[in-house]
User: Fold these one by one.
Assistant:
Number 1:
Amino acid sequence: EDGKVTGHDECPHVITVDFGKSVAVSGWRYTARTDTNSGIVNDYNIYASTDGKTFNKIYTGSFPKFGVNEDYKTNPVKTASWGDTPMRTIKIEITSSISGYGTAAEINFLTGGKADGAKTDSIKTDSTKTETDSTKTQTVRLAEAEGYVDRSLWKVQASSDLGSTVQRVLDNNTGTFWHTHYTAEGSTITEHDTPPFTLEFTLPEVTAISGVSILPRQVGNTGMIQKVNLYVSDSDTGEYFLLKENVEFNEESFSEKRIPFSANIKVKHIKLEVLASIGSYGTMAEFYAFSEDKGKPTVSYQEFNTYESEHKLYEIDNTAFIATYEGNNWGGNTPPNMFDGSIKTFWQTEPTQDSVMSFNVDMKAVNRVTEIHYTPRQTDDHDGLWKEVKIWGGTDPNNMEPLKDVTLAETLDKKVIAFDSPITVRYLCFEVLQYVDKRISCAELSFWQDKASKDAMKKKEMYNLKIGSNVIASEGSEGKIEKAIDVAPYIVNGSTLIPLRGLLEQMGASIQWDGVKQKIYITNGDYKITLQICNKLVYVEDPRYGSIRYTLLNFPVIKDSRTFIPVRFISEQLGYKVDWNSETQTVTITK
């Protein structure tokens, strides 16, 4: 009040850092503020955790010279090393500091070993020893350790920059960010640059990369990038080549936005053109390039587009997918939220004592699947996060086989579950064997296929039914198949009636029967058809036109304890063409 501090938090102060994966941390580097000594750290404890929940003290240290003879101004950096210790989360407990506050200009973490296994002179200590400075430790560079290109010699420039902030996209500090130029009077923005913005990266030498990624600023979504063009060049004098056009990032999340390539490309320059962003500003915390993928070929710019179209993955349309879970959902967070295209919504179960939880997905059609992408619920508590999942699948819900058993990193980024070769499935069961906090959750679940599988699914879907025969002959992505149904179709008043069960389920429709009202409910994606026994009126919910009432030539009937419905009307409403061959008494239904 009036420039005086009337109260403040006292020690201990705790800083917790989640690395997002298991890393070997051997020490930390603390840089003090240099404008004043207030809050500079003197004594501290270090705790480590492998699961983010249970912490063990591994080190006790102090910086006794801080605050004496203004040492913080001439020598603000202090380093402590305890030797490589595996951890996912580190906790720094500041037990004493100058004036009882807590401050820091920079904090970095150290590792005692390089990626090639070469050891440094880090000194291992126990929790009773004080620190020993080590000049040979190195700052942990999580991005490079994850298979990204070393950016230490990169150069970058931007078409719009607030000061020199664009350099921050290469500083390995996710807390800093680039911001496009604006001017303000007080808290009011008077003008600012608008898209498109360009960022041009120059590498020290021609390098093969297999993709790039953007890490958004981690506080506030203003300027978060939503659409980009990506250009590359392999020489200083050559023209840029448009490699990726109109790449969209619809998810307003702080997770990394990846643009993977189907093949390696050699580059000397990378240009990112920002076409759209939140608020029409531009911001970014970090920009990375994936290292060369030894499992992919390296192709020229001229070959890339052709190779990409042949080898990239395509998302399978999930509008008709149905997910079911036999337990209780938490609040209104139901399974359909996994397929709504937004990571802001999610499905989550209530807490349970079950050791294994599972849910089922009916894709409503047979597909060949190459990858499954799982995006966790985007909350820091990690509730419901999958740690291990076993996937079952098949074309028969009663005869599914084990397909994949995977362990997933306990992070909030999208997880890719890849199969060695495409799997042919309609039904899948996800058995989540390990999860966080006695529940499972999921923000988005998507299924992907390669071009060959996509083309295979385009084969004409066809069904043949013969009057008096209880066999349906189908032809499609599974080849030619014959399946028996309970009773044969028959003709009444010039219309063919088919048994309710059998054909519609093969088409991917779901059926509900109300025995009290004798009503039939048929659902296929966004289409819903309601019929009633001995009633010619039928109601159709069409996503294009809304609710429509039709009058049938022949109404549904019950015969020999089986329900029969008119095949032409129902099939055409579901998007099929119906042909009748009077000579062979055969109905042909084609998608």
Number 2:
Amino acid sequence: MARSHHFTGWPAVEGYCDHRSFCPGERVNVRCSGRASSMSAVVSRIGAVVEQVWARTNIKVSDTPVPDDAWRSGCDWPATVTVNTERDWPPGLYLITLQADRDDSEKGTAHAFFVLRAKLRLPDTPLLVLATNTWNAYNEWGGRCLYSGADAVSFRRPLERGYLTRATDDDGFDGRIATVGHHDPNHTHLQDYQRRRNVPLWTSSAGWFNWERRFVTWAEQAGFELDFATDLDLHRSSDLLDSRRLLLTVGHSEYWSWAMRDHVDSFIRSGGNWAIFSGNTCFWQVRINHNDVMICHRGAARRNDPVSDSDEAHLLTAMWSDPRIGRPENETIGVSFSRGGYHRVGEAVPRGAGGYTVHRPDHWAFEGTELRYGDLLGSSSCTVGYEVDGCVFETVNGLPIPTGEDGTPTDFEILASAPARLVSINDTVCEAPAELWADLTPPGDLESTAQVLYGDTSPQSLARVAHGHCTMGTFSNGGTVFNAASADWAYGLEGDPLVRKVTANVLLRLGADR
């Protein structure tokens, strides 16, 4: 069964690219469907400057049916327009604006994207891998996502409005969760914005617009050149990181495959460096099949994932910290969301400072900042926000030292921290903001994490994970990993000179010759 392309609130034309990344000179097929008989398409590179590179008008388009399970199977729409990329186009994210002819309204416009990788791999150019797995996990186009009943989601479908670009209100508000937490504890501003702009709920939790776009804008303004790739590139290309010095992860890179971790672990062991300006990083394991379908059973994995009781149980699509997998993300990134949580979201540290307390101001990451022990970093821009990662530590002579019991390397040096909390939802308590949660049915993050790690939700087990932290730090395993451990780090680049200085220190230090 399939249904016509007539969904309430959908643009008159929509589309997606047959692949997500290309090399300069390759052809990009854009697969479209719509109620209009013709449309225009404009391609622009999005960076510190928005540069239009290609345009066509009067493109014929047909109303191709949408499969009932499009979220899982994809759309299989026809190639409606082909973009011939030029060999001199620089690497970056390219936004495709699709506009139905004779329709100037917002509902007449939709967006697709593709990524261009560098023509030549230059070792001194950092590689930014866009968190496209996470975009796909939250994208509810076609009826479902991993947060509304799906256990598999296709890359071969459009992204909902708001993941790639978004209208900004007169006061500058664009749906940022941390800003809402800072100015509007009840999150009514976000809810009102999403209703007025027809922006889906999950676009505040994922997408290019929120974090990577801001980072790229700052980096290019600051004179840093970047190369680009997607999660699928990292998953499928064992040589993607060869000869590179620095890998970058920004924003909210939540969903990782076994192969992605293998490739990054090998890169670090061989002397490569990694700068993580992300939170909730590498929390869920996914499997990706040859049809570009990403599988993740999340909290139901032990019950529903076919590999649960097989000899491939290590590929369980559950929390990486699940003992059945045996590979906590701490081993790769230094920290885990299971020891962090939320900051300034709902009742999770609702009046927190939004910044880090500095513990080790003499570290090279803080060079030139004049920060001192106990100072706050990033609070003016709520740089610590939304989802954050931490580790188990003890305090020795007033300084935090990892215990290593959660998989965090014992040489992980905690530079700064902030309090965080996993949200509790049980029969008597709901700490989650209803405006931001699609399902308030128990268990909450606190209860489910305790159940996975310790096998029960007793008061003793809950207490072991209830009081988390955002722990910025570094460790070495051949190369060096720096982890800011906060999803909202990129917001500090817009308004805090000290956050910009720390970021530049990290890029210059870790991007230098091995």
Number 3:
Amino acid sequence: NVVQVSAGSLHSVALRSNGTVWAWGYNGYTQLGDGTYVDKATPFQVAGLTGVTQVSAGWYHSLALKNDGTVWAWGYNQYGTLGDGTNVAKASPVQVTGLTGVVQISAGYTTSLALKADGTAWAWGNNSYGQLGDGTFTDSNTPVKVSGLTNASQVSAGYLHSAALKSDGTAWSWGYNGYGQLGDGTTFLTNVPVQVSGLAGAVQIAAGLYHSVALKSDGTAWCWGSNGYGELGDGTGAASILPVQVLGLTGGVQVSAGYSDSLAVKSDGTVWTWGWNAYGQLGDGTVIGRIAPVQVSTVAGQTFASMGGYHGISVQAYVLTTSVSVSPLTQAYGKVITLSATLKNASLGGNLIGKPVAFTVDGVAVGTAATNASGRATVVVPSPLNYGVGAHTFTVAFTADSLYKAATATGALTITKADSAISVAATSGGPGNSKYLYASLKRKTDNKVLSGRTLAFKVDGNAIGTAVTDGKGRASLLYKFSETYAIGTHTLSADYAGDTSHNASTGAGTLAVVQSGTKLTVSSVTGRVGATILIKGKLTRITDNALLNAKAVRFEIDGVEVGSAVTASGIAPLSFTIPNTLTVGVHTLKALFDGDVFYSATDSVGATLTVK
């Protein structure tokens, strides 16, 4: 009932399905955790540890992660490798100081790493080459945060360098780089993470002695760094400062890096190794080094394996139960639909990282995503407008792999009506002006315009007409200003009644009524003294040349008012008898309009009265 193993330099650690930890091998630094320095040739249980979900064996120390997110360590501690705030070796497990919420651990040479559920990485121990990644070269016997690394999904501690994966599939590394094991195209060390060049789609990483190994989502393995023993597996034996593909290896599901050797487990349960083999650690029945993968003899049906300093370990299939959970989601129509699920190890507790979870809505597949450091997988549903208002069902499914059983869950997706918003443009004009009134309609959830919708326009609450929104969501209504509304500012509103997917809404703007200009004309007339003549003044509105009625027009001759008349059909007629006081000759004739609340004042020019 072993579910995970880890091979250290000269000792081994195993985790059983009941959450207990077992160890065997060399114990010169108390790395077996039994309270002694006595080597063990058979497994024994590490006392005081229960509820463990993961183990990791370093060179001379060991780590365990419990299901409460705490980390425990024992063994060599000269550089603070155990993270308990001291530099004294511990023969039994002690808790790493101040570290909670951890989801993954890795023990290196004299350095330890932990990944927290928030995607941050923490390190402690030896920092001579910057392998803690905190921007210094100072050792630390308590955890320090790896600088600038966010959204991490896995960490791995090597000999003098460290590595991590991010949730976007990129790989990052820091520390010693004399053999190019950081994979950034240089041999310069760094005390902060740098990106591994040209590597994308990675799902697992392992840091070894002077090399690194990564597994990509397509099942291929890639290596970089030292290659003196063929540990890169590319068939050349030449070192590389950039990732190179492991020769002929496909279908990989897990990788591990040892001293100068490497290992991969394939989906068919076979284990493949390459590199240094002086102690038979490649398991192929020989002690001959390999520059390309060879199959471990007689081993089949394996689910997990670990390459150590001088040996390797693999686990026969033991399938763990899983649980996947979802929460109901209520969302407005048109808003981006983001579905999420959390995948956990139901047998041991803790989150499952880097596992694919498939999502469907109403039975139609919408996407697959890998779980992050919190065990959470998230998918953005394409074409959210395809899902109308009402109740929908989404399902999430994790497909069984060599170590974990399948799990499914169903959730309720409720789409509610979207709120709409109307913006109304301000407009002004005087009586006689014909202008378009504009209003725009949008959906609030995604700010998209709504076309083909009818908007009802009103002035001060009085309906004046309707218009339909165009492809830009804009409705336009031709409106002619009149004397219906007084000079000044009025409320111009537009109403949308809503539909099956959108709530009703109202928008308001302003309609400013201003005075219109006028034009007054008088025709020249001729008459004899004592004769009665008809003088006509014509008053029109400049905006549309309309004739104005019921407007008083005054008449002057040589600046002296001689009478007034009211317009009818725009004409103000004045019957005038020429008095004998007017001399024979040409006189100035003028008509005047004094204006009113809607129209500005004006007078005529150029007309004459000729007296004979």
